[in-house]
Automatic annotation (TrEMBL):
Organism: Rhizobium johnstonii (strain DSM 114642 / LMG 32736 / 3841)
Domain spans labelled Response regulatory: 3-116
Entry protein name: Two-component response regulator transcriptional regulatory protein
Compartment(s) where it occurs, according to its Swiss-Prot or TrEMBL record: Cytoplasm
Entries under SMART domains matching the protein: REC, Trans_reg_C
Superkingdom of origin organism: Bacteria
Modified residues (4-aspartylphosphate): 52
DNA-binding region, residue intervals: 128-227
Short name of any one Pfam family annotated for the protein: Response_reg
Keyword entries, A-Z: Cytoplasm, DNA-binding, Phosphoprotein, Plasmid, Transcription, Transcription regulation, Two-component regulatory system
Record PROSITE patterns: OMPR_PHOB, RESPONSE_REGULATORY
Gene Ontology cellular component list: cytosol; protein-DNA complex
Amino acid sequence: MNKVLLIDDDAELTTLLQEYLVEEGYDVVTDTDGRAAIAAAAGNTVDIIVLDIMMPRMNGIEVLQRIRKLSQVPVLMLTARGDDVDRISGLNLGADDYVPKPCSPGELAARLRAILRRAGQPAAGTSTDTIRAGKLVIHPGSRIAEWRGESLELTGTEFSLIEVLARSAGQLVSKQDISKRAFGKPLTPFDRRIDVHISSVRQKLGLREDGQSWIQSVRGQGYQLLVD
């Protein structure tokens, strides 16, 4: 049973989400203080954290920043609807996904399943064989990535994205295909999630000798992982 830590100071919403997730088979712990999330990450006591951004004492962005210094535990952010700044900030700091509030319990449960699937066992039909793409080596079964012979630290979402590109190394992969293969759902209009996560992966890979990125983009179409 997956253990979920839900951090939100909205008591009514927290109760609603907790009851629904328990019925879905999750073990749910709630708290109103982001410091509980930091402690859980440090102690490796939960499988995933649902973290509201707007909270007293310490906001969700600061909490996420501290969590990522301690752990790569999956984090789903609850954001104010239409607040792109908070969403992009969260993704840049390593959040695995976000859900705008008010959110339906069903949508939250679906997002949790998708994140946990990416962070755990490969989906049915996914090869666990090692993938080699130039200097990049991907181990889907253990979800470990190596770059130039050294471990590449990636969030769960970043790993899913680079795995998709590595499987089609040297070829252009459309954003729609990336979304379906990495997130398990179609890309929606104005969703910049892929772009933000790709930007983070680019920084971790560094630049080629010619000064170009290892992940090339074709405006409005998709991305391509170079292998030489």
